[in-house]
Amino acid sequence: MKNMILTAALSMAWLTGFSQGSPDYGAGMKFNLNEDGSKYVRLIAWNQIWYRSSQMNPGTMIGDEPATSSSDIGNRRLRMLFYAQLSKRYMIVAHFGINNQTFTNGGAAGTTGTGGYGAGKKPGMFFHDAWNEYAVVSPEKDKKFSLSLGGGLHYYMGLSRMTMASTLNFLTIDAPIFNWPLIDNSDQFARQVGIFAKGKYGKFEYRMSYNKPFSTNLAPIPVLTGEKAIAVDNSGNTEWSKAGYFEYQFLETESNLLPYKVGTYMGTKKVFNIGAGFYNAQDGTRTIVEGAINKHDIKLFSADVFADLPVGKKENKMAITAYSVFYNYDFGPNYLRNVGIMNVGIADPNFTGGKALAGPGNAQASIGTGKIWYTQAGFLLPNSNEKPKIRIQPFGAFTYKDFDALEKSSTQFDIGSNFFLDGHHAKITTQYSARPVYTAVDRIDGHKGEFTIQLQIYL
């Protein structure tokens, strides 16, 4: 009987976390391993297709042709996640798939040119998550306090709510990327291998981890004075990293069955949380000054607030969603990393004008030593009595960045809307984004825009 009660509770937690805004989804793809359903496997599969019209940074070439703009369609994510409750305390998770396949890149290693393994074709599938977990103190035994320990390739990376965001239920079309400050350098697509502890004490939730970062070996540029030093990812014999995120949930408590934090519940929960977190890795970056190698710790901190609340008349099912986060990043002196999502552009060697410091395509200064403030908000419009019932949720986001390597701070914005056909399970998202274009450390030469339409399905 106890096993059945616990199974029901876990099932409800799962559905709360993965069925936002869809009353028809039910139990999803669940496969019972015994008669009473206390042992089972769940499967989630999802796909996000992007159509984009983009302005390219100055100095961009696509293929062998200079380009100032581009339109394309690509596979942002194609994933599958398995979750198995093998006993009331023991759980395993496996999550794999592909990301960022375009018509020019994103294919498997070595794909290039023309033919069966040409540019952008047959991307390599890999594991995003693979861990085991054991509930030392389960909610069944003590309703106020819980503790689970686990290990493997995991997503309990601390720092902020958005650092552990679910990719299934973003408010905006995607994350701003600087929420994953180590992305594919000292982590594997926002994950590291290590051990973690998670749990709750009443309305207080905690997540901590101790990990072995992936080794990095970028060569720093030798300089004569410390003011000109530029830190790069070079960890040598990598030291262990430490991470944590701590959150107080004032209203309804959220499920912590899995690490993935919800972007918008569409008013199906009353949530107001404040949180703070950190990530620290000793000797994670290096500089060379006057021939001497200097090692620098990676020290990252954040504080954030999240709210998702129904508003107005109950029958209208309106809701507001808002999230704001402040990051204080220290990777060492003048560290700066430029990122372009699904970037189809390459450098034009014949371009004679002022090139973008960030590089070609849609790249921009995304991560660096300095400060970032990011805020997003959305409003779920009143429910229509007409059929089919398409829910509409306009949203906007604002970003402020102040990096040590750049003499001017920058601002940028995103604006768009979600069109929910069946909650997050079937939705269309449109978004226009503007990014600053630095042509010198003290000069922003206007902004470039990108309009994206996303088609999302998940089962």
From TrEMBL:
It comes from Flavobacterium noncentrifugens. This is Short chain amide porin.
